[in-house]
Amino acid sequence: MRLDTSGGFTGTCQSLQSRADFARCGQTDGIQRRRSGSIAAGTIGNVLEWYDFAIYGYFATAIGRQFFPHEDPVAQLLSAFGVFALGYLMRPVGGALIGHIGDRFGRRAALTFSVAAMAIPTFLIGLLPGYATLGLLAPIALTLLRMVQGLSVGGEYTSSMVFLVERAPEGRRGLMGALTSCGACGGILLGSAVGAGFAAAMSTASLESWGWRIPFLLGLVVGIAGYFLRRHVLETRIPREPRKRAPIVETLQRSLAHRARLCRLVACSTPSASMSASSIS
């Protein structure tokens, strides 16, 4: 923006006639930038976490050969997917734990923790030696890393949705909350594309020997970006008065009064979870 010879502003705010209008224009631009930053910070964690789930499913055969070499091919694949399933079993625990962190210390702390709890294990899986080097410790370490990742996914999905809805403008809460699912789907598509790209560019022997590790190592880049995006996001208001009971305890007590609705919600959620799992595999 520049000042012309007649004393009026030219550029995007050329039509403004007063300093008050100019200030309002700058304030609107600032709000839009913060909103864009919040959207990026809220969705990037789901992109990373479902990217990891996708590439694990894509390279499950190679992972099975690396960590379960003494089994036949079918048993190797089943063992790899068994470790994969443990991540899903950890998701309710992650939702309760990271949700509690968000209630106690704020959404920023919860989301920063969740993205770190996914990026670091993803990177370590790419570095983890196989059964030939570590023996029985290799599948045990793989299982533990997958459990941490599942815990992270369970907390990330719900926490990021609450984070976006809290920052949504009036009348746009549904749209902002839906971006969480867009980030998850984007991560699945990204992981599938990366897996297909490496499978097309590398020989089968190289891919199963060491090539499958590269997509896991690349996940650290997305994790670092997500960490810095969330580190500088504005915090939501945290209640100053301490609660008499932990938020998770209050939630469970209230849910007992709505058991029928809770059962219907779980019943409706199960088919969608199954569809997500089948799309990854």
Please tell me about this protein's structure:
This protein is mainly α and 281 residues long. The protein has a single domain (37-268), classed as Up-down Bundle (Growth Hormone, Chain: A), CATH 1.20.1250.20. Helix content is 79%, strand content 1%. It contains twelve helices and two strands; from the N terminus they run ββαααααααααααα. It has helices spanning 19-58, 60-67, 73-89, 91-105, 107-127, 131-134, 137-166, 173-201, 204-211, 213-231, 247-256, 259-280; strands at 2-3, 9-10. The protein has a two-stranded antiparallel ribbon with strand order 1-2. Strand 1 (2-3) and strand 2 (9-10) form a beta hairpin. Helix 5 runs antiparallel to helix 7 (137-166). The radius of gyration is 23 Å and the shape is globular. It starts with a strand and ends with a helix. Mean pLDDT is 76; it is low at 1-10 and 272-281.
- Which secondary-structure class do the elements indicate? mainly alpha
Mean pLDDT: 76
Helix-strand topology string: EEHHHHHHHHHHHH
Q: Termini distance? A: 52 Å
- Major sheet characteristics: 2 strands, antiparallel
The domain count comes to 1
CATH homologous superfamily assignment = MFS general substrate transporter like domains
**Uncertain runs:** 1-10, 272-281
Strand content: under 5%
CATH class: Mainly Alpha
The count of DSSP E runs of length 2 or more, i.e. the number of strands, is 2
Main sheet: which strands, in order across?
1-2
Q: Overall 3D geometry?
A: globular
For this structure, the CATH topology is Growth Hormone, Chain: A
What is the share of helical residues? over 70%
User: How does CATH name the architecture?
Assistant: Up-down Bundle
Give the count of helical stretches.
12
What does the radius of gyration come to? 23 Å
